Amino acid sequence: xxxxxxxVTARHRPEGAMxxxxxxxxxxxxxxPLCVPCISEKTGFTADETEPFLARxxxxxYVKSGTDRCRTCGRSTLVYSLFRKE
Length: 86
Known about the structure:
Helices cover 51% and strands 14% of the residues. It has 86 residues and is α+β, with helices and mostly antiparallel strands.
């Protein structure tokens, strides 16, 4: 599913969009650390919405967090990422 269609689906069906929203956030942080403001900007979710998604994703898979360079804005700040096993 394309990124744009996931965003549209999540915005128009909020009651049934939780798995799609989780998937969208997870897809953005695979192999590239992003800060919450950049994740929020890319998804259209607020920071208050984004942080619970990150926490929920972290219950099922390892979400790395720490200070690093955000791959979108370039700031050195708290970022989140997922890494694939190789």
